[in-house]
Amino acid sequence: MTAEIKQLTAEQLQDWVEVPYLEGLIHQAVVSYQNNRRTDLAAVKNRSKVAGTNQKPWRQKGTGRSRHGSMISPLWVGGGRAHGPQGTQNHSVQLNKKMKRKALLSALGQRAREDAIYLIENQEFDTPSTSTADKMFQQAGLSDESLAVILDLSEETLRLSTRNLSYCRLYNADNLTTYHVVANSYLFFTDKSFARIKERLS
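Above: the chain sequence. Below: its structure as tokens.
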């Protein structure tokens, strides 16, 4: 069975088009998503971890030099770092469910106004075929763009057919976020994933 691509018009996406473009809220949702994915591994050695002696470099008085108690002090080259990162930094930013939902609706509405949302019909290939999927996108003239293909968990054949296409990014309809919508030029839904996302946002 050959898949077919149909562009969804603003009239078909009326519920999304009517949502105003909320740039500030979309920005918050994108920053929140990126920060929550961030793993901060930066860490430095403080004076308790740096290798070196804790002995006084010279006696307290009589040398004419300044007083020092340790060569691993942060004041010394090679000494421990004072107040440096320890790899435990937390950059997470939380948004409530209402804000996340409204940001996603606003981003989808903007893509709908740009005529950038498509529907893949008859997508159940007989067998997984990357070349068939590639031909499908080439015929639509979109193989040079960044495409988000939103699937339902049950659509394994289409997932296997598109996962190796460099211009396609695959997402589950249950996990679609504002960042995924903003980061891709065009969105491709299947019948099942489109019904699932509308149910999720209703």
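Residues 134 and 165 are 7 Å apart (CA to CA).
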